Amino acid sequence: MRGRSGILTASWLVLLTALQILAFVVVWRFAVGTEHGQVLDTIALTGISIGQHRIEGVVGGVLNAVSLLSLLVATGVIGFIALIRVRITLAVVTVLLIVGANLSTQALKYVIERPDFAVDEARAAAGNSLPSGHTAVAASVAIALVMVLPPRVRGWGALIGAGYAAAAGVATLSAGWHRPSDAVAALLVVGAWASAASLVLLLTQRETAQVAAADGNRQATAVLAVVGLALLLVAAIALGWTDGIRSTPISEFDRRQLLIAYGGGAAGIAGTAALVTALVLVALHRVVPRYTGRGVTGPAD
């Protein structure tokens, strides 16, 4: 795909990559680098004490499924799906997406320093935990899988993948492993890698490749975008409400206050997962077209 449509798609992917990197920096600087941000994160994390014992089994099951072994197996499966569709470049790029997103997440975690504002003394010794490695594993696998799926099942794959990434991110919060900002930051890292990978696929596309508008998965994209924005609005309202009472010592917060803070953090994670997936899906039918242009105009699926 070349011409005006190709230029517009490439510009969109460059802009999307830049915006997600910028969003990551904003989350990092506020949530980690300021006392204000650390207080809000800590209040939301403290909210897990409400009913945590009731969901331990579910949370443990989700987190146990996110391991190095599962990452390696999933990466192999994703590469295999691309290869059986005779998409060698797609196989290479999606594997690099998974590897790059997870390696950069781990590198950032060690590079970023967390100032001690005496906000969360119980976890002060642990140091920085942003971005979340478990969330990055789940999100990178989910998005890479969406990219290699044939168009006819891509929309369903996106809905399931976004749900899986959201569940993993919220589970890290519910288990007390990560603050809300850690999971949100991880999703933004994966999103930036996904849009950059999409740009590479677009630039290496055959000139004769043909895009089918019917492969746009508009309904799935719209559902993910609407759900994502709605959840982020809920998160913003909860964050604003919690911000108004942040001067109150956390030990004096009642159940309702902690629940609102925790719920807002969880909504922010889930909303980011849905929106990042929707943004990937917007141009995916142009980035990975059904018609590859290998000398004929028949479908490659």
TrEMBL record:
<feature type="transmembrane region" description="Helical">
    <location>
        <begin position="261"/>
        <end position="284"/>
    </location>
</feature>
<feature type="transmembrane region" description="Helical">
    <location>
        <begin position="132"/>
        <end position="149"/>
    </location>
</feature>
<feature type="transmembrane region" description="Helical">
    <location>
        <begin position="183"/>
        <end position="203"/>
    </location>
</feature>
<dbReference type="InterPro" id="IPR036938">
    <property type="entry name" value="PAP2/HPO_sf"/>
</dbReference>
<feature type="transmembrane region" description="Helical">
    <location>
        <begin position="62"/>
        <end position="83"/>
    </location>
</feature>
<keyword id="KW-1133">Transmembrane helix</keyword>
<feature type="domain" description="Phosphatidic acid phosphatase type 2/haloperoxidase">
    <location>
        <begin position="90"/>
        <end position="198"/>
    </location>
</feature>
<feature type="transmembrane region" description="Helical">
    <location>
        <begin position="12"/>
        <end position="31"/>
    </location>
</feature>
<keyword id="KW-0472">Membrane</keyword>
<feature type="transmembrane region" description="Helical">
    <location>
        <begin position="90"/>
        <end position="112"/>
    </location>
</feature>
<dbReference type="InterPro" id="IPR000326">
    <property type="entry name" value="PAP2/HPO"/>
</dbReference>
<feature type="transmembrane region" description="Helical">
    <location>
        <begin position="156"/>
        <end position="177"/>
    </location>
</feature>
<protein>
    <recommendedName>
        <fullName>Phosphatidic acid phosphatase type 2/haloperoxidase domain-containing protein</fullName>
    </recommendedName>
</protein>
<dbReference type="Pfam" id="PF01569">
    <property type="entry name" value="PAP2"/>
</dbReference>
<keyword id="KW-0812">Transmembrane</keyword>
<feature type="transmembrane region" description="Helical">
    <location>
        <begin position="223"/>
        <end position="241"/>
    </location>
</feature>
